[in-house]
Amino acid sequence: MTAIRQTRATCCYCGVGCGVIIESDGTQVLGVKGDPEHPANYGRLCTKGSTLHLSASPVLQQQARALHPELRLERSDTRTPASWDVTLDFMAKKFANTIREHGPDSIGFYISGQLLTEDYYVFNKLAKGLVGTNNIDTNSRLCMSSAVAGYKQTLGADAPPACYEDIALTEVVFIVGSNTAYAHPILYRRLEMARRANPKLKVIVADPRKTDTAREADLFLPILPGTDVALFNGMLHICLWEDLVDMAYIDAHTEGFAALKQTVRDYTPAYVADICGIREQDLVEAARLFGKSRASLSLYCQGLNQSASGTAKNAALINLHLATAQIGKPGAGPFSLTGQPNAMGGREVGGMANLLSAHRDLANPEHRAEVARLWGIDDVPAKPGKTAVEMFEAVRAGEIKILWIACTNPAQSMPEQKLIREALRKAELVIVQDAYKTTASVDYADILLPATTWSEKEGTVTNSERRITRIKAALDKPGEALHDWEIAIRFARKLEALLDKPRTLFPYETTEEIWNEHRESTRGRDLDITGLSYRILEEKGPQQWPFPEGANSGKKRLYEDGLFPTANGKARFVNTIYQPVAEPVDVRYPFRLTTGRLRDQWHGMSRTGTVAQLFAHQSEPSVVMSALDMERRSIRNGDLVHVTSRRGSQILPAISSDEIRPGQAFIGMHWGEEYVSGRGANGDGSYGVNAVTLPAIDPYSKQPELKHAAVKILKADLPWRFLVFGWVDASRVLELQASLRPFMRRFGYASCTLFGREQMGVLFRAADDYAADPQLLAEIESMFGIAGAEVLRYDDKKRGNARRILVRDGKLAAVALAGDISAEHWLKEYLESGQAVASLGRLLLMPSSQAPQGFKSRGKIVCNCFNISESQIGDALAGMVGDSDVCLASLQDKLKCGTNCGSCLPELKKIILTQRTSMKAAA
After folding, report:
1. Which of 108, 114, 296, 721 is the 20 to 30 A CA-CA neighbour of 141?
2. Are 162 and 465 in contact (CB under 8 A)?
3. 871 and 826 fall within a common domain
4. Packing angle between helix 228-241 and helix 280-292, nearest 10 degrees?
5. Is 295 exposed, middle or buried (0-12, 13-18, 19+ CB in 10 A)?
6. Overall pTM surpassing 0.70 (yes/no)
7. Is 417 contained in some domain?
8. Given this model, what pLDDT does residue 737 score?
9. What CATH number should be reported for the domain holding residue 492?
10. What is the structure's pLDDT at 252?
């Protein structure tokens, strides 16, 4: 019997940096559990982290993974397998020739916050030290660059000053621009624990949507999108008026307050309430809670950052902290929550177009000289590099000829997808380095480089609280995949030979050698880690920086002494002035569209999208609207609508929700063309949510305004519907989903997602303005096994309706509905439940949507861990008495929901509150 090995690593999703213990047999991951000794999570995992072992299933990995290098010599060719030497030789020659002919700035690198620190360091050195270009940027530009710029403008360095422990020590938590309950669930568990331990702790949430996080707040400020600067300035105005600022702290530790004070005089409560769309008394209460508190802690994320004024939003919030001295003490501080698992590590090594290693600025000649000396090169180029949006614009314009994409999927995640795809088609050479071959960006790759992924990589990552964790690999590299740093180094050595370099800049054989060079670059800097080593990280566990040589531990929180990493040691107030969103609504585009995370999915879903049960909570793409807006437009739940901006359009089902106020709409950020598409308005295809988002960028951080766009929403006239769903053998489920992608573009609208738990199924949905060719439908049905004598058939050619039922072993195995698909609600649940169908008789083929007698829909899955649905929760609550807390405890005891990862707890509380309110109204 093979012994089970346990390997410590971290979760590869959000920036909380939860420790995990990978259980494996040396060849595959058998399970995963939270690391009880890791200070980020103490053993807790969210619904995504707790299913990591499912995404690492060998059966799924074999279908989704890139396992061999692939090379396309001419654009008209298909990619074919090639050896590493042949592939890298081809790349090196192409790079060398392009550099000689067009200069080093004709090359661009677009990398990722999901790389390990060592990977990041090597790529940064490859671009700036060997190729000689600063055209290296990262998808962290899309999520954290405004936080970086805000910290640097005010505090002097890109360093979150607080720590997770502060959540238990604070008196007021101000959550803004973050649905923490969904985006950072384990951090939210800490907040829940803190509130239980201290009932006096107050939570303020500012958000355009009434999210699960907002529902649980003591004070909810439903601000209009993009009005954050006005909100913070208005709160500071009130703090000034009511003498809640700390003038002694301001005088001793800051500069620039006089100009800001003059500005915020105009931000009166009435003026700000009008701009933000909130009640004046709520604004005043928020300012008083924040200013009077012994310790106030702000938690914020993409709602502040993904904006054309994202830096100003960050700075305005930090202004509020500085003015009230809510910084540099336990329980207080402006705490930016990192979006990706190692966005912090990438910032530390300077892996962005405007940075250098150890938080050095590319624009600073002394900083460039320091890095050049460390690397042993003549100089680091001074010309600013292209940031994310700028880089793709330069590719489209022909300025950048070669684009190397690593560990990210810009054909899903970047704004204005039309621009991105035009750029990818225009480039002379597109290299995609990824663990997965199923992303939309791979379709544009001339070269595919297979890389390792979670459970196979080793190195370090840094989480949101500046804590570095050492990761070890549980599994060997699969197929011919290499570590990201190995690929970059092998290529670099070949390029060095062609460029006649006398010695290599890349002598490393291990990740520790890379990390040691990175460590030396931090000496004397704000993030000094010269006191750390791999050995210390392995023996003492994860450590926070700074951790200079001679120190016994890292620093929990920064600026406790009131000294800041600026020229004079003082923090700087920034004179922040409110600017409206980059694209205001108007008569033609009257809706404010926002985007954000779903609870159980991650980024472009290349990993979570392989786990069927993670679709249970949000099974298909949709646009969320207010019931009032839908009623005014005669849109019913599930009706298809065009969501159209000035850049593109995507058809989606509309769903009503009380979380959205009239005039606004919301789409999950994860839905790319891998899961939703169609012919598009001009027959050129649609590409998910980012077909409509905005590429306008912040002037300081260069972060795009992904969070807001002006759109129009019109009912889609697509009366004919088609739906196929069925169980698929696990060995081909992802291959089937990928093979259906070309078919999606042949309909006006189409989506394709997974479902199931013990079994895996695929659901394909399409709509059009006319009935599709029967041959096309038959081809799709046959891919689900719906063919042959086992299939029950019903056809009504006059009405254009058809039904195909595949029964195996007396149970539903697959269903296809064309025309009238109203029976889907019970047929799919019958299939999922595995009930015998013999008793249904002709009902299976009846043209009506009538469900079997006694059938009751389960509804949405609320608790993914225990597969508990809305209807089960409702039934369990029906006979319960007592207040909400008593009902929650009884519910957990009876159904176990919310007792494992806890991700469903906010929704459980919402359901209980709704049911209690309904019962009182009925009484």
Report:
1. 296
2. yes
3. no
4. 70
5. middle
6. yes
7. yes
8. 97
9. 3.40.50.740
10. 98
